[in-house]
From TrEMBL:
NCBIfam families: delta_60_rpt (TIGR02608), Por_Secre_tail (TIGR04183). Residues 771-837 form the Secretion system C-terminal sorting domain. Keywords: Signal. This is Calcium-binding protein. It comes from Flavobacterium salmonis. Transmembrane segments: none annotated. Gene3D superfamilies: 2.80.10.50. Pfam families: DUF5122, Por_Secre_tail. InterPro entries: Delta_60_rpt, Secre_tail.
Length: 839
């Protein structure tokens, strides 16, 4: 009775689990590591409740849209109670907190939530605009620094020359309602930008920037003002600095630490960091950093123990100094910050802000993509010893695009693309995952590749063919765009291929082990676009082709080997053997053109995807908009002779509303029931919204049961169908269904029924299981004296959790979580499914 009751409970759990809808997430892989990779964080500030306000020039956080401002919880997760709506329309450079919790933001923005507020605004604690603070027409240029006095008045510095259409050069003090405080008299003000303002305990104001005058009096980059705006003559900087001051911090003893781009103070060399006494003299000692910094110091912070942190665009981007100004070698930053994956941006890799938490942890903001080889975009929390704080933020998944996904027979998954890390750890361009999404540590690629992986193909012997843009692997040069690896990730030295011509885009294996690949444009290489290799990597000279491709294009992008040995090739070519042949061709097995395949005038643009149906019909996807002169947007099905299959009707087809990017079908996959999965760059199908992934019925109509809501926010490059119907989808995307963060890889339910109820009905007596339920050993008893068989075990949500190709009697399931499981047992002649219970 107890056994029956337990089974009924578990079976009910099964029914609940399989009420899961198509399109639901089954494997939530890939949460983006912080802010968007090309974004910049300029400022962070910590509230009294430990929450963190972050401002800068960014558009996403953890893969979700977030414009220029966010509030985080103390663990780095987004504070959903802080709702900015559309937020500011441009970057935030400075943030200050009032005693009542209201927030002053300054920067380059001209509106907030659609309301005009030029470069300065005050927000309520929930992120809404505080309309009691009225800046009128505001500032005419950037606000860089905001400081709130103890009396509630607000000091503002920046690049501006006016406030509310009245002259106000680089600095102003406002009353708490946003009006100008006329008691703060700056007269002509500064002649150069104000970058930093800090208040002393005696209410005097230290100002740093790129100015040379204040009120027409010489003052090079640093000055101290009295509370009324007058020049404090007791603070003497003499000839001052020869470059800008970017940051100022005050020690508890009143000494002043100054960072910037300067190399001289009062005619003596002090490279970019200096400490002054309360009168403006150089404090005894100097920062022991060899010859000083080799780049600008943009931020300075002083810890409770008196140690000094400096950040900027110098080597490693952050340093800590002891109170005697020597380098603190206990602060271990390893490789420091870097921006390896960023394009050439004006400011390169830079730390702009350092903020100290109450627990002595250190928040570091800037423009970077990694810290000490760990992927982290623009915002990082460090422990006091300099190591990354692993409890802060969410760091799961890939940091860049995925182009290829391939599944091994044991359920492990090979993934290739442009990424250089997985779960924040360096992983260059190729990885093998376990079925649950964890990294397979037995697959060791060392330092990996030097450039992206485009395709992955598994050989029957378990070896792995990899192609892409790379020219080296594990630091060894000479692997020009193709390599064969052993199953553990080591180099298969028996594969010798040495041609340096053209990036390889596609690969197929013949049954005899020979390898056909297609490559991109290369000067003077018409006979190298489609090549066949012998199993050892040498060129098969019996296979000769000659394509003419468009300049600097993908060349041959997709290849399909038909069961009869004929070869379909698609890409960006316009001729074969000197004769017109646009974008698609079928070849005989020796490389000659198959004249029985007639596409007439062909396509008008490149082909990116080819898939062969079981009936011999061909699914073709790409960027084309017509076929044989008739409108056909991005997808078509051809009969085996090249004629259009009119039973497959896509109507107006696909479209994409971005002006610079054409719509395109990049990948297609045929489901066992004949339906067609399509991924690419599009946001509509037949004039209905559909973002980058769709399932079509066999007649071309949309499969409405495949409901993915708002879909994926960027391109889908690869689709892998698993045995249980689950789909692994890879690409450029960072979100799914708008609210689900998923950087570049996600698992979703793809079938109407992943494991049917019938899977749990023992329809034959070829095998029996005992004991059932079991706590540890599950015996598989063959009633027909079958000796060896393969086994796959699935959990309640249909995910493959165990596979073994050579089982002969029993399985140890002691490590399984208690619950109901499905076991599929396969022999040479049949497959059977049975249930068992793990106690």
């Amino acid at each position: 009775m107890k056994k029956t009751l337990l089974f009924l409970i578990l079976f009910l759990q099964f029914l609940i689990a399989f009420s899961q809808n198509i399109g639901d997430i089954t494997l939530p892989l890939g949460i983006s590591p912080g802010f968007n990779a090309t974004g910049t964080v300029y400022k962070s500030i910590i509230q009294s409740d430990g929450k963190i306000l972050v401002g800068g020039y960014f558009s996403t956080y953890l893969g979700l849209k977030q414009n220029f401002l966010i509030r985080l919880n103390s663990d780095g997760s987004k504070d959903e109670s802080f709702e900015i709506g559309t937020g500011p329309n441009n970057s935030i450079l400075t943030i200050a907190l009032q005693n009542d919790g209201k927030i002053i933001i300054g920067g380059a923005f001209t509106s907030y939530q659609g309301f005009e507020c030029n470069r300065l605004a005050r927000l309520n604690t929930d992120g809404s605009k505080d309309n009691s603070f009225d800046v009128g027409t505001g500032f005419d240029n950037i606000v860089r620094s905001v400081v709130i006095q103890t009396d509630g008045k607000i000091l503002v510095g920046g690049n501006f020359n006016s406030y509310q259409d009245k002259s106000q050069r680089k600095i102003i003090r406002l009353n708490s309602d946003g009006t100008n405080d006329d008691t703060f008299n700056i007269e002509t003000g500064f002649n150069g930008n104000v970058n930093s303002i800090i208040l002393q305990n005696d209410s005097k104001i230290i100002v740093g920037g790129s100015f040379t005058q204040y009120k027409n009096l010489t003052s090079n980059s640093l000055i101290r003002l009295n509370d009324n705006g007058n020049y404090d003559t007791s603070f003497v900087t003499g000839t001052g600095f020869n470059g800008s001051v970017q940051s100022i911090a005050i020690q508890t003893d009143g000494k002043i630490v100054v960072g910037g781009s300067f190399t001289v103070y009062q005619r003596n060399t002090y490279n970019r960091l200096i400490r002054l006494d309360t009168k403006g003299n150089v404090s005894s000692g100097s920062f022991n950093n060899a010859s000083g910094f080799d780049g600008t110091v943009y931020t300075v912070a002083i810890q409770n123990d008196g140690k000094i942190l400096a950040g900027g665009d110098f080597s490693k981007k952050i340093r800590r100094f002891n109170t005697n100004l020597t380098i603190d070698n206990s602060f271990n930053i390893g490789e420091g910050f870097s921006s390896e994956k960023l394009p050439n941006i004006v400011y390169g890799c830079t730390v702009y802000s350092i903020t100290l938490k109450a627990n002595e942890n250190i928040l570091v903001s800037g423009l970077y993509t990694s810290y000490n080889a760990f992927t982290q975009n623009s915002f990082t929390c460090l422990n006091p010893d300099g190591n990354r704080n692993t409890d802060f933020g969410i760091k799961i998944g890939f940091n860049d695009n995925i182009y290829a996904i391939t599944k091994q027979d044991d359920g492990k998954i090979l993934v290739g693309g442009e990424f250089t890390s997985y779960n924040g750890i360096a992983q260059k361009y190729l990885i093998r995952l376990n079925p649950d999404g964890t990294k397979d540590e037995s697959f060791n690629i060392g330092t990996g590749f030097d450039n992206s992986v485009n395709t992955i193909v598994l050989q029957t012997d378990g070896k792995i063919l990899v192609t892409g843009k790379f020219t080296e692997y594990q630091g060894i040069e000479g692997f020009w765009y193709i390599i064969r690896l052993n199953s553990d990730g080591s180099i298969d030295n028996s594969f010798k291929y040495s041609s340096k011509l053209g990036i390889i885009n596609s690969v197929v294996l013949q049954p005899d082990g020979k390898i056909i690949f297609g490559r991109g444009f290369e000067q003077n290489s018409s006979d190298f676009y489609l090549v066949r290799l012998n199993t050892d990597g040498s060129r098969d000279t019996s296979f000769k082709t000659k394509f003419d491709v468009y300049l600097y294009t993908i060349g041959i992008k997709s290849i399909v080997l038909q069961p009869d040995g004929k070869i379909l090739a698609g890409g960006d070519f316009y001729a074969f053997n000197g004769k017109n042949q646009k974008y698609l061709i079928r070849l005989n097995s020796d490389g000659t053109k198959d004249d029985s395949f007639n596409i007439g005038t062909g396509f008008d643009s490149q082909i990116l995807s080819l898939v062969l149906q079981n009936d011999g019909k061909i699914i073709v996807g790409g960027e084309f908009t017509n076929y044989q002169g008739v409108s056909q947007r991005n997808l078509i099905r051809l009969n085996s002779d090249g004629s259009k299959d009119n039973s497959f009707d896509i109507g107006t087809g696909f479209s994409y509303d971005a002006s610079t990017t054409p719509s395109g079908v990049i990948t297609t996959s045929i489901k066992p029931n004949g339906k067609i999965l399509v991924g690419g760059t599009f946001n509509s199908y037949q004039q209905n919204n559909q973002n980058n992934l769709i399932c079509l019925n066999s007649d071309g109509s949309k499969d409405d049961s495949f409901d993915i809501g708002t879909g994926l926010n960027y391109a889908v490059n690869a689709i892998l169908q698993q045995d249980n119907g689950e789909l692994l989808v890879g690409g450029n995307f960072t979100t799914y269904k708008k609210d689900h963060r998923s950087a570049h890889l996600i698992g979703i339910k793809g079938n109407e029924v992943t494991l049917s109820n019938e899977d749990f009905i023992q329809e034959n007596k070829q095998f029996s299981l005992s004991p059932n339920p079991t706590k540890s050993i599950l015996n598989i008893n063959s009633l027909n004296e079958t000796n060896n068989y393969s086994v796959k075990i699935y959990n309640l949500i249909g995910r493959l959790i165990y596979t073994n190709e050579n089982v002969n009697s029993s399985i140890d399931v002691s490590s399984f979580t208690p619950g109901l499981y499905l076991i599929k047992i396969k022999t040479e002649t049949r497959e059977t499914s049975q249930k068992f219970i793990k106690l």
